[in-house]
Amino acid sequence: PLRTMHGFAEALKEDYAPVLDDAAREYISYIAKGATDMRAIIDGMLDFARLGEDGVVFENVDLGEVIAGVQAELRGALQTAGADVQVVANLPSLVTDAKILAALVHRVLMNAITFRAEKQSPHIIIDIAESDATVVITITDDGIGLPQDQWYRVFQPFVRLKTGPAYTGAGLGLTTVKKAAALLGGSVVLESKLDQGAVVTVTLPRNSL
């Protein structure tokens, strides 16, 4: 139904633009954008609901390959945002679920792209700390950030602390990250300052078996 709405709205705008006034063309654009935004919300809800539905498959996973795969998947979005992603060398392996881990990294990177500072290309750093028991993934951005008294809210479903045309989504990005970390036997915390970016730290067991 959303594809139908969007498709006919675009067809109406293209085929009948010469006989429509400015207000009518603007209203059609609102319809098309509403359908696009609703599709994004539904996709986010489905991603959250489906995460882990096939079970969690623990295997030896190369973290470097997972991150490289996510970057390849997000190449278009990263290029559009002008994002610079710096990844520490010599990433370790761990026993985890590669698909769920990829979904986690994907969501954090998308958050960093979406909530970037105005008129500024995002700079994202992915760093690793490891021990015999854990692998800690730290993803730092230089985006718009948020005040400390709002940190806890970002993991609640459907909470959007920043709204507007540039900040789309369903408010499920970090909620999905939290669910993914839990499925992998780990945890996630966020630290941030308003206008000074955010740091998402994910701690995972090195061996979940």
Characteristics of this structure?
209 residues, alpha+beta, five-stranded mixed sheet, two-stranded antiparallel ribbon, 20% strand, elongated
Written overview of the protein:
With 209 residues, the protein is of the alpha+beta class. Helix content is 43%, strand content 20%. The protein contains 6 helices and 7 strands, in the order ααβααββαββαββ. The radius of gyration is 19 Å and the shape is elongated. The termini are far apart. The model has no long low-confidence stretch (mean pLDDT 88).
The termini sit apart by 44 Å
Approximately how much beta-strand content do the residues carry? Answer: 15-25%
Name the poorly predicted regions: none
Please, what is the oligomeric state?
A: single chain
Short description:
With 209 residues, the protein is an alpha+beta fold.
SSE map:
Blueprint lengths: L1 H15 L5 H29 L8 E4 H11 L1 H7 L2 E4 L5 E4 L1 H17 L8 E8 L3 E8 L31 H11 L3 E6 L5 E8 L4
Parallel strand pairs: 2-4
Antiparallel strand pairs: 1-3, 4-5, 5-7, 6-7
Helix pairs in contact: 1-2, 3-5, 5-6
